[in-house]
Design goal:
- By secondary structure, the chain is α/β, with parallel strands linked by helices.
- The chain is built from eleven helices and seven strands.
- The protein folds into two domains: about 45-100, no CATH class; about 100-275, Rossmann fold (3-Layer(aba) Sandwich), CATH 3.40.50.
- The chain has a five-stranded parallel sheet with strand order 4-5-6-3-7. It has a two-stranded antiparallel sheet with strand order 1-2.
- It is elongated.
């Protein structure tokens, strides 16, 4: 038997061979190092391709041990879903910014308390967007503060999610822009621009009477959009009183004929939401005005 010198010069049996275990450990460490380098390179290539959400999801997958139980197709599907959702959210945000809403309101934010008497099935259909493809209109009426602007914005927000272009205008501001456009000889360009939007929201319709010139401008706008796009109008006046806010009866007839007959009506009721959210209604006194010495 071959013997090997032990420490201190004492001979003994040969030590047990550790080479296989050492090699397995080395190979395991090398594989982990190679997989980490490959994962890092894959994430970097995804970022270079502009697939930022997919790169983030990929990084989350390689750090989650539970992901190893999923098939390759399942993991790939999760990566694609993450990138698709991120892109849809960015596009929706761009449409929302381009719409120039006065406030932030989504379908999920709508208050359906019984006192408001909202037509929930109708709102559900409007949020789905089929009325936009059908080029119909939505008329929202009710007293001040009941949430007409909020509801119109929520419908417009849902349209942005579905890929439609939306533009919000308070009617007084639109009339001011129209007057400036006419002074610059750009009124027809403004009509073409407004006719381009899939959904046009005109808030505060009938707040002040329309002059003959303003009535003709509105007729030109509604005629350009009739059968081509969808419009939302909000007003404190009931629809049957809209005829009286326009200076000329013939223009009023022509405008309402293009707006009312293919429209859904939401007649809101109840107290002012602003009043319900006031400090007094919430049980705390309003802040005292500060006086300067």
């Amino acid at each position: 038997m071959i013997t090997f010198p032990a420490p201190g010069g004492i001979r003994g049996p040969p030590p047990r061979c550790l080479a296989p275990r050492v090699m397995l450990g080395v190979l395991h460490q090398k594989r982990e190092r190679d997989e980490k380098m490959l994962s890092t390179a894959t994430g970097e290539r995804l970022r270079q391709l502009g697939l930022l959400a997919m790169a983030t999801a990929w990084q989350a997958q390689i750090q989650d041990p539970a992901m190893t139980a999923l098939s390759c197709d399942d993991r790939w599907g999760l990566l694609v879903d993450a990138e698709w959702m991120a892109r849809m959210n960015r596009r929706t945000q761009r449409r929302v910014q381009s719409a120039h809403f006065r406030l932030s309101a989504t379908p999920e934010d709508v208050d359906y308390t019984p006192e408001r008497r909202l037509d929930r099935p109708l709102l559900a259909r409007l949020f789905q967007g089929a009325w936009i493809l059908e080029h119909h209109n939505v008329l929202i009426t009710g007293p001040a503060g009941v949430g007409k602007t909020f509801l119109a914005t929520a419908i417009g927000w849902a349209a942005c999610r579905q890929g439609f272009s939306v533009r919000y205008y308070r009617l007084p501001m639109l009339l001011e822009d129209w007057a400036l456009a006419q002074a610059d000889g750009q009124s027809r360009a403004l009509v073409r621009q407004l006719a381009h939007y899939a959904v046009l929201i005109l808030d505060d319709w009938g707040l002040t009477p329309l002059s003959p010139t303003e009535s003709r401008d509105m007729l030109e706008l509604f005629d350009a959009r009739y059968g081509q796009a969808a419009t939302i109008l909000t007003s404190q006046l009931p629809v049957e009183h809209w005829h009286g806010v326009m200076a000329e009866a013939m223009l009023a007839d022509a405008i309402l004929d293009r707006v009312v007959h293919n429209a859904y009506l939401l007649a809101l009721q109840g107290e002012s939401m602003r009043k319900q959210l006031s400090p007094t209604a919430l049980g705390s006194p309003p802040p005292r005005p500060t006086t300067r010495p």
